What we know:
The chain is an alpha/beta fold. The chain contains eleven helices and nine strands. Helix 1 (2-19) crosses helix 2, helix 1 (2-19) crosses helix 8 and helix 2 crosses helix 8 (175-184). The structure holds xanthosine-5'-monophosphate (XMP).
Amino acid sequence: DWTMASYKDDAIEKIRAQVGDKRVICGLSGGVDSSVAAILIHEAIGDQLTCVFVDHGLLRLNEAEEVVTMFRDNYNIPLVHADEADLFLGALEGVSDPEVKRKTIGKLFIDVFQREAGKIEGAEFLAQGTLYPDVIESVSFSGGPSVTIKSHHNVGGLPEKMGLKLVEPLRELFKDEVRALGRELGLPDKFIGRHPFPGPGLAIRCPGEITKEKLDILRQADAVYIDQIRKHGLYDEIWQAFAAILPLKTVGVMGDGRTYDYALSLRAVTSVDGMTADYYPFTHDFLGETATRIINEVQGVNRVMYDVTSKPPGTIEME
Ligand code: XMP
C-alpha cells in the first residue's frame, strides 16, 4: 500500500527527530496497537528501544509465549518479560467485585510497569500506541489497564510521574489504518485481524472469585471455541468471541458416572466500534458441535451455554 509505505517513512523520520539518541520504553500487551507502535519505533531507532511486557497471567492460552517469541526472536527487539502471574493471582484472591478486580489489576499493572521501566537506565521517553479515537476519547473503561498504557483513561499521569516524555506515533491513525501499517511492517494477517482483548484479560471473563483452576479451564475452553470458529471460517465475521467460566457447578452425566463441574458461557458478537453489539447467530449445528467438543476436550466442564444478549442491555464482557 503506497500511502501507508510513505506514512511509515514519515513516521520513522518524526520518531528519530523527536528521540535523537535517547532511550525509549514501550509497554507491550500483545495487542495490535502496542505491537505496531513498538515495531515502528524499533525500525526508527533500533535498540534504543526496550519493550516491557507486564504479564499478569490473565492472557489466553500460549499468548504470553507468542508475544515473547514474536518480539525477541522474529523482530529482535529487546524485551523485558515481567512474568507476574503469581503476584496478580495473589492480589486477586478472594476478590469477586468487578470494580475491585479492575482496580486491583490496574494498580498492580502500573506498579510492575514502573518497577521494570525504572531499571532501564537513561530512558527519557515512554512510547504508547494511542490512536486517534483515543485522543478524542469519550469512553472510559472504568479504570482497567488498557491494551497499551493509555494515560487518558487508564494510567493517568504515569509519564509525568516517571519523568518521561511521550512518543505516540499512532496518534493520527484509526484502527484500520493501524492494521494497514502493521501489514506494512510485516506483521502476519492472523495477528493483525485478532479480536479485541480487554486489558484486565480473563479476569473479567471469570465472574466471581478467580482461581488458577478456573483460569486453566477457561483458557482450554476458549481455545477450543476459537478453533471451532476459525475452522468454520467465521472468525472475521465476528467482532469478538470468547468463553467465560460461570461461578457455578452443575450436575451432569458422562459415561456411567455423575459429574459435578463448571458451566461455561460462550459469547460472540458483531459490532462496529464495541459501543453497541448484537449476538452472533451461529447455527444450531455449530453450537451443538462446539458444546460437545468443549465438554469432551476440557476437563472440569460439563455444561455449555450460548449468551444471546445484545449490547445494550448487556455489555460485551461479563464484567
Ligand atoms: P464492554 O464489556 O464494556 O466492552 O461492552 C466494550 C469493548 O471494550 C473492551 N474492554 C476493555 N478494553 N480495557 C480495555 O482495553 C478494559 O478495561 C476493557 N473493558 C472492556 C471489551 O473487550 C470490548 O471490546
